[in-house]
Amino acid sequence: MSGSECCIRGPYFFGKNEGQGYEVLSNAFGVCRRGIDDFDSMFLGSHEVDVLKPDAVQRGHVGEIISRLERKGLKIVGLKMIQVSEEEARALYAVHQGEHFYEPLLRFIRSSPVVVAAVEAKEACAVVRRLLGATNSAEAEPGTIRGDLGLSHRFNLVHASDSPETARKELAIFFRTDEYLTYDRALEGWVYDYSTGEPI
Ligand code: CMP
Predict the structure, then answer these.
(1) Ligand 1 centroid vs 88 CA: distance in angstroms?
(2) pTM recorded for the entire structure
(3) pLDDT at 19 over 90
(4) Closest CA to 145 of 156, 132, 135, 154
């Protein structure tokens, strides 16, 4: 299908963006698109990667954690279960190389499948880190994910990007550009006030 060609299936409207190779689907709520051109072009500050670690998967907390992100209003734009490779683990934790907990951390993150989520929100990193609580779960405030679900410093359930720059790197570690989804949420206008055009 070329850029100008589209077909209508039921209430949905499909088309293919010429040259880009991604599929565009329009529906009553707006546009859905599979894939983005590159991670560098994404708006810095509104994206974030969360890795639901082996302890979250093994203890059956994936649903609870994803649910807490959704309840807050964060928009999930990529989600998958993977086995982290040695290369991905080293890339994710490169900043901790040389720390006493570095090698055990690499072993831990590869000890079971994990779930990786790409989420969007205004100031996504800061929002998610507040939801998670302190790195050491034993010290995390009740009401936070770690404060409610964990006790350990290392087994602290979720890794979250600590800055927009880190988020962009981590997105590229775990997601191909064609796995990243762009879509309009039906309730978006009730999550933020968009009356000025910007989310407030
Ligand atoms: P995370 O947010 O994934 O970033 C680095 C991880 O290293 C951290 O969560 C913890 O799982 C782990 N970590 C950080 N500091 C320590 C520590 N002092 N002892 C054990 N594990 C740690």
Answers:
(1) 16
(2) 0.87
(3) no
(4) 132
Go through the chain and tell me how many residues it has. 200
Paired tokens of 114: 């994990």
- Beta carbons within 10 angstroms of residue 45's beta carbon: 17
Question: How many A from CA of 177 to the centre of ligand 1?
Answer: 28
3-state secondary structure at position 75: strand
Looking at residue 150, its amino acid is G
Residues with CB under 6 A from ligand 1: 96, 101, 105, 135, 153-154, 156, 159
CATH architecture of 39-182: 2-Layer Sandwich (3.30)
Domain definitions of the chain by residue range: 1-34, 39-182
**Strands of the chain, DSSP E:** 6-9, 12-16, 23-27, 30-34, 47-52, 75-82, 114-120, 158-160, 181-183
Tokens of 140: 């995390």
Kindly report which listed range (23-37, 64-78, 116-130, 142-156) carries the lowest average pLDDT score.
23-37
**The pairing of beta strand 114-120 with beta strand 47-52:** antiparallel
